[in-house]
Design goal:
Chain lengths: ~120, ~110
């Protein structure tokens, strides 16, 4: 059974950099895109971006200038960095798996990490 | 960016009844990029339907998806107590995923 375990700092000050990590247990690491999604009461579910095992990325244009997603295939690990955070970045952040197939969906999700940005 | 609108915002029903949830896209969406998720409080979204009508692994057959173009529907027949939750539709287009605002199904 595939599981995604995520972790990272939960409390940040404005202008700091958000850093979250997700490790994949079980299943294949290649053959998928690995995504980050966030959820807030204001914006709902918002897809941040994705990366595959070879490091190819896609980002949401609304966040692209501040976001970096990286991967370490040998450790089955991928990470998210969001620079210059503000209160608007306060949300629950999820990592998720998206099969590389003819259909587009995310079938396995991490449990979520609550990130609060406050001075 | 394709915008998804879901209706109704809240659906109040009794167990055993059927629920019909709507997802409308601002422009035509390929069926292979339309999915539905269920989310309960404090939990991550759970994939129910992908490709507009294919059930994900382990999803009961009381959940069904249909539609094409700009109009998609999730139907839950015979609501069970564990089905009361928030449901989101999702589409993939122009290399980004977007989600609808959700429909809450609560107990009447």
């Amino acid at each position: 059974q595939v599981q995604l375990q995520q972790w990272g700092a939960g409390l940040l000050k404005p202008s700091e950099t958000l850093s979250l990590h997700c490790v994949v247990y079980g299943g294949s690491f290649s053959g998928y895109y690995w995504s980050w999604i966030r959820q807030s009461p204001v914006k709902g579910l918002e897809w941040i971006g994705e990366i595959n095992h070879s490091g190819s990325t896609n980002y949401n244009p609304s966040l692209k200038s501040r976001v970096t997603i990286s991967v370490d295939t040998s450790r089955r690990h991928f990470s998210l960095r969001v620079s210059s955070v503000t209160a608007a970045d306060t949300a629950v952040y999820y990592c998720a798996r998206a099969p590389i197939s003819s259909d587009y969906y995310m079938d396995v999700w991490g449990k979520g990490t609550t990130v609060t940005v406050s001075s | 960016e394709i915008v998804l609108t879901q209706s109704p915002g809240t659906l109040s029903l009794s167990p055993g009844k059927s629920a019909t949830l709507s997802c409308r896209a601002s422009q035509s969406v390929s069926s292979n990029s339309l999915a539905w998720y269920q989310q309960k409080p404090g939990q991550a979204p759970r994939l129910l339907i992908y490709g507009a009508s294919s059930r994900a692994t382990g999803i009961p057959d009381r959940f069904s998806g249909s539609g094409s173009g700009t109009d998609f529907t999730l139907t839950i027949s015979r609501l069970e107590p564990e089905d009361f939750a928030v449901y989101y539709c999702q589409q993939y287009g122009s290399s980004i995923f977007t989600f609808g605002p959700g429909t809450k199904v609560d107990i009447k």
